[in-house]
Amino acid sequence: MKTFIKNFIADESGASAAEYALIIAVVGVGIGAAALVLGANVESAVGNAANEVNNCNNSEATAGKYTSGSVTCDDSGDAAEVTGS
User: Fold this and answer.
1) Does residue 84 carry a pLDDT above 60?
2) Residue 27 in domain
3) pTM (whole model) above 0.70
4) Burial class (CB in 10 A: 0-12, 13-18, 19+), 73
5) Secondary structure (DSSP) of 27-58
6) Which domain holds residue 70?
7) Which residue has the higher pLDDT, 28 or 85?
8) 58 lies in a domain?
9) Domain assignment of residue 85, yes or no
10) pLDDT tens digit string along 41-60?
11) Which residue has the higher pLDDT, 84 or 32?
């Protein structure tokens, strides 16, 4: 019995499977966190773009010109033109 316990404690064959499972769990959590951050950033960017287009479309009160930061739109023609970065 003493020999069995010594051999059982010294046996490390199952350790690699547990290490791989731990690595997969850590990588999975990292991917999940990155997806959440990326989703929030994309949502913010799309929201900002929608607001700029909306402001450009509603710029008739300012003689057809609207400027916000680096975005300028001119809807004096048939369609609004948005320029900037």
Assistant:
1) no
2) yes
3) no
4) buried
5) HHHHHHHHHHHHHHHHHHHHHHHHHHHHHHHT
6) 1-74
7) 28
8) yes
9) no
10) 999 999 988 888 777 777 65
11) 32
**Token output for 3:** 């020999």
Total number of domains in the chain: 1
- C-alpha distances (whole Å) from 7 to each of 14, 16, 19 are 13, 17, 20
The residue type of 80 is: A
Q: Burial-class residue 3 by CB neighbours within 10 Å (0-12, 13-18, 19+).
A: exposed
Is residue 74 classed as helix, strand or coil in its secondary structure?
A: strand
Q: What percent of the chain is modeled with pLDDT above 90?
A: 29
Residue 84 placed within a domain: no
Could you tell me which residue, 40 or 61, shows the higher pLDDT?
A: 40
Q: Phi and psi of 4, rounded to 5°?
A: -60, -45
